[in-house]
Amino acid sequence: MKIALVGYGKMGKIIDEIATKRGHEVVARLKETPTAENLNNPDVVIEFSLPEVAFDNIKACLENKIPVICGTTGWLEKKEEVEKMAADHGTAFLYGSNFSLGVNLFFALNEKLADLMKSVVEYSCQLEEIHHIHKKDAPSGTAISLAEGIFKHNPKFDAWKLEETRENQLGIFAIREDEVPGTHSVFYRSEVDEIEIKHTAFSRNGFALGAVFAAEWIKDKKGNFTMKDVLGL
Ligand SMILES: NC(=O)C1=CN([C@@H]2O[C@H](COP(=O)(O)OP(=O)(O)OC[C@H]3O[C@@H](n4cnc5c(N)ncnc54)[C@H](OP(=O)(O)O)[C@@H]3O)[C@@H](O)[C@H]2O)C=CC1
Ligand SMILES: O=C(O)C1=N[C@H](C(=O)O)C[C@H](O)C1
């Protein structure tokens, strides 16, 4: 399969290595807005760039009818617009706040726990995410997905707020530390105890491998998808 990498920083470079090892041809490595010319006719684009450029990058690819796997976080207010664009252009789009298998299992566990906790009034809930000091957005896309998973099952919570936990509001605490690849925890606290579930990434390799899996899966599909579709979860 021919893959174009839009964004060629920490993630783009690891995806390049993994995609090549899996027998794919990387036909473009871009640090600029994609065009029909510089994309070099790929089957799929994998987009890991910056929050402020992701929308324009995705738009340019979808307008050229190229399916996009997007891992860039921090631009989600425009996700609906992108999904409409993918449908209108008869191509495919998949956003994943986190492409690792472990985090996608953790998302499922988070939803099960949220469902269990829905009728237990004694517990407040808060999330913590720890990332490297270069990260541009806060809270992380993964923390937002965890919060959305909780809202889906537990009507007690319907909003999140950075650094502040209230009765009906999830606090998301964002910590920036050294070169941490990504650690996420969900806490339920009562007067007498605490429940914690936690995922720790040891490197970026799991994110990159998941993005390549998603690219292999989406080739020749049309519509809007998530990692749940890819992993059959
Ligand atoms: N969903 C997931 O599983 C994961 C998501 N992420 C997210 O992916 C994104 C990228 O992460 P990471 O690789 O660590 O970040 P980096 O900052 O290392 O890489 C971003 C790259 O984008 C390039 N760039 C700048 N402008 C453009 C443009 N207009 N078009 C295309 N590329 C451009 C930058 O170029 P230059 O070097 O010249 O500035 C840089 O190479 C972040 O939003 C991060 O949160 C990260 C890991 C996992
Ligand atoms: O910026 C990162 O590095 C990461 N970003 C993603 C996020 O915002 O959740 C995924 C992962 O945690 C690494």
Q: In words, what does this structure look like?
A:
This protein is an alpha/beta fold and 233 residues long. It folds into two domains: 2-99 and 205-231, Rossmann fold; 102-202, 2-Layer Sandwich (Dihydrodipicolinate Reductase, domain 2), CATH 3.30.360.10. It is built from eight helices and eleven strands. It has helices spanning 10-21, 36-39, 51-63, 79-88, 101-117, 141-153, 205-218, 227-231; strands at residues 2-6, 25-30, 44-47, 68-70, 92-95, 124-131, 159-162, 169-176, 183-189, 194-200, 223-225. It has a six-stranded parallel beta sheet, with helices on both faces. The chain is elongated. The ligand O=C(O)C1=N[C@H](C(=O)O)C[C@H](O)C1 binds next to helix 6.
